[in-house]
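job 3f2a | input accepted
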Amino acid sequence: MMHRMFSVVIVVATIFFVCAPVFIAWAPYESTMGLVQKIFYFHVPSWAAMFVAAFVCGIASAVFLFRGRLISDRIAVASAELVVVFGLIGLVSGPLWARKAWGVWWQWDARLTMALVLWMIFIAYLLLREYGGPGSEKLAAGVALFGMANVPFVYWSVNVWRTVHPTTNVVPTLVPGMRGPLWWSLVGFLLLYVLAMMARVRLETQRAALEQIYRELDD
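job 3f2a | predicted structure (219 res):
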């Protein structure tokens, strides 16, 4: 059943990613930024996927902390890795866009700084898991909860502080020709997240089973 679902997600995600460049090319140019504004169709979905991954990691970590379910821990570590991956896409695409829009690669304003901090929190989570020793899973779960709690602040920061970054009302005000490609790209990135999560959780389950075999052989 899981293998069949995985195959279906691969096919659907492939369709979205093959068609996305065509829809993005058809989208109208923004009047002031021109072609470079089309980074928007990669930048915003990558951050959306990062936020989803952070919430999944945090919720799974909470279940692991309070219920002790090992599958939740595997989901958490898999999703934390994807927070870092999608966050890196956002941190690379953002400055490429900012250089044209703002004239600088980076601004230490609220949104950008908090997004960078959020990304680094999940890097800390992975480092703790890797090098923290016995019991580091529960410590890392606490870090994941802290990271998840930061997501709403990152999202809402542009509406609270004056920043060079556009506010959250940009997407609802897009012209129809831009709205379609954005939602298409957003679904594509979320499908990519689901696909990577399924593969990574399966890999983590197999790794745990292999470690169990090694422990039994040692005994």
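job 3f2a | Helices lie at 2-26, 40-67, 70-101, 110-131, 136-160, 176-218.
job 3f2a | closed
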